[in-house]
Amino acid sequence: MDIQKALTNTLASAFHDLFDQKVDPDSLLLQATRKEFEGTYTFVMFPFLKLTKSSPEASGEKIGNYLLKHLSEVSAFNVVKGFLNISLSPAYWIRLFEELYLKKEIGSFPQKESRVMVEYSSPNTNKPLHLGHLRNNFLGFSIARILKAYGYEVIKANLVNDRGIHICKSMVAYSKLGNGETPETAGIKGDHLVGKYYVLFDKEYKRQVRELMDAGMQEEGAKKAAPWMEEAQQMLVDWEAGDPETVGLWKKLNGWVYQGFEATYRQMGVDFDQYYYESDTYLLGKDIVSEGLEKGVFFKKENGSVWADLSEEGLDEKLILRADGTSVYMTQDMGTADLKYRDHQIDKSVYVVGNEQDYHFEVLFKIMRKLGRPYANGLYHLSYGMVDLPSGKMKSREGTVVDADDLMAEMINTAREHTQELGKIEGFSLEEAEALYEILGLGALKYFLLKVDPKKRMLFNPQESIEFQGNTGPFIQYTHARIAAILRKAAQIELDYSAARCRNYLSLETVEQSLIFQLNDYSNKIAAAAEELSPALIAQYLFDLAKEYNRFYAELPIFSETQAEEQAFRVALSAQVAKTIKSGMGLLGIDVPQKM
RNA sequence: GGUCCUGUAGCUCAACUGGAUAGAGCAACUGCCUUCUAAGCAGUAGGUUUCAGGUUCGAGUCCUGACAGGAUCACCA
C-alpha cells in the first residue's frame, strides 16, 4: 500500500476531471504537513494555478473535495493560503501499522544484484589511532551497514599504509633508543609504543635540523641533511631492496602495531572482510601507466615522467609516474582500484577518506573513467570533514591529538560515573553494569560523531561535547530501555498485543498517528542515507522518533485507565518503536540496552 | 593567486533538495515523579539565515559579487 502514489494518482485525475488538464502523477510532489497545521500530507497549489485558472483557495477546495470523494483513506482536508492539507483516516493508520507490525524484518530491502566495497579506516602504522580516525571508522562501518540494509552485498576493506618514510622514522628512533623495549616490557599497547618512537624521532630530528642551521646551513638543506633523516631514507631504500635486517625490524614493529589496532578496533566495534597492505600494492599500477600511454590518456615528458592532462575536464596536469620510474600515490591507487575489482567484481566502491583528498579522488576517478574501466562510474569518495578541537586543528607534533583509546576509555568512565550518580544499577551484576557503561559510553561517542552531516567539519569539545541528555545516543538508548520495561511488564501480566488485537482500536491520538507515520518512514530514511552516504540522516531520524515516543509516553497511559484494544495497541506500538530504534541504532553501529 | 567546501539562536547542529510563522539539543528560567524508568515531558526566552544585488507567485536553499573560515593546488602520502 503506497498512499503517496494513490494520492498523486488521484490528484492527477482530479486535474483531469475538474480542470480538463493532463498532469503526470510523478511530477506531483507531496510534502509532510507542518506540525502547526492539521493533516499528514500537503499539496502545494501555487505551481498549478495556471492550470486551474482560479484562486489558490478555490482550487484547493475543489481538489480537496475530489480527494475526499475518490480516495477512501482521505478523511478530511483544509486549505490554508495555497496549501492543501490532507488528513488520513484512522482505519488507514491502523492498517498501515498492522502491515509494519507483521513484517518479520524491519527496514530491509530486497537483495540487489550488486556488490559494493567500502574502504575505511586505512591507518598508517607509525602511530596509534586518534579522534579523526574514530569519525572515519564509525562512518565507514555505519555506511557499510546502511548499504547492506539497502540490499547491496557489502565488502568492508581496510587498506593499511604499512610502508613508507613515516614507518622508517619510527624504526630509526627505535633502533637508536629502543634498547629492546617491547609492548610487554613497556606495559603499553604496541601501536602506542611505536607512536612513542615516532614522536622521539621528530624531536631529535628537529634538534638536528636546528643544529645544522645554527652552523649556517639553509633550512631546506638541513632538513635533508639531518643524520636521522638520512638514515630513515636509507632504511626505506634498504626496505625496498629487501634487506633482511630492515625487513625484520619493520615486521616486528608493524606486528606490535597490528596487535594494538586490533584491540582498538574491537573496542570501537568495527571489523573488516578484507585487508589490503600497501607493502603488497605499492608497485601495482605501473602496468596501467603503459596502458594509459598507449590509449593516449597519459603522456610522457622529456625527462621520462608520465602525466595525465585533465585540463579539458577543468583540472590541470597530474603526475602519474616519476622520472626515475618510481610510483606515486596516484599510481598505487589506480592499481588498487583494479585489484579491488579483480578480487571482488564490485559494482560500486566507496572510499571513506577525509576531504583534504577531494582533489586526489576527483583526479583518480576521472582517470579511471578515461581508461574505460567498467567500474569507473561506481566510484564514490565519501569525503568527510575534519574534527576540530576548540584549540583548532589536531596536530600530533604539538601534542594536541585526542587519542582514540583514551577517549573511548574516558567515555566509558563518564558513563559509569553518570549512571552510578543516578543510582540506576540496582539489580545489575558487575558484568552487566560494566557492559552497560560500555554500551552507553560508546553509544554517546558514536552518535556524537555520526549525527553531523559527514561532509561538514565538526567541533569536538572534550569538556562539553559528550552529553547524555538531549540529542544524544544515550537519550535514544534510554527510550529503548523504557520500552523494554513496558514489554517486560506486558509479558509479566501476559498481555496479548498481537496484531489482531490492535485492529479494533480506531480512536487514535495524533501522537500515535505521527508515530505510525514515522515508523513507516524508516525505510525511506535508509534509502536516503544509502543514496547520500549519510548516517546522519538515520541519526536525525532516530532522535525524532525517540522524541515523539517520549511525548507519547508522557501523555498517554498504557496499563491503567485503558480499554483492552487500546492497551494492546499501545504496547504493540511501543514494541514497534523499540524494534525500529534497535535496528536504526544498529545501522549506526550502536547497541541498545534493555535496562539503564 | 587558481580550484573546491563551509558560513543558520550565545554554543553544537537540523531544515524532506524552491514552499506556510526557519526547527532541535546544550546553556538560562518556570512547572511536572504515590501510575509503565525524571538520562524524561510541558513551557518561557533566544534569528536581518555573514553582507549586497538578481531570478519568481515564493529564496536559508538557485545565480552574480563581496567578506570570513577551512582544504587543496609537490617528481609527498
TrEMBL record:
Keywords: Aminoacyl-tRNA synthetase, ATP-binding, Cytoplasm, Ligase, Nucleotide-binding, Protein biosynthesis. Residues 476-596 form the DALR anticodon binding domain. The gene is argS. GO terms for cellular component: cytoplasm. It catalyses: tRNA(Arg) + L-arginine + ATP = L-arginyl-tRNA(Arg) + AMP + diphosphate. HAMAP family: Arg_tRNA_synth (MF_00123). This is Arginine--tRNA ligase. A motif ('HIGH' region) lies at residues 123-133. Pfam families: DALR_1 (PF05746), tRNA-synt_1d (PF00750). GO terms for molecular function: arginine-tRNA ligase activity; ATP binding. Monomer. It is an enzyme of class 6 (ligase). GO terms for biological process: arginyl-tRNA aminoacylation. Its EC number is 6.1.1.19. Residues 5-88 form the Arginyl tRNA synthetase N-terminal domain. The keyword Ligase applies. Gene3D superfamilies: Arginyl tRNA synthetase N-terminal domain (3.30.1360.70), HUPs (3.40.50.620), Isoleucyl-tRNA Synthetase, Domain 1 (1.10.730.10).
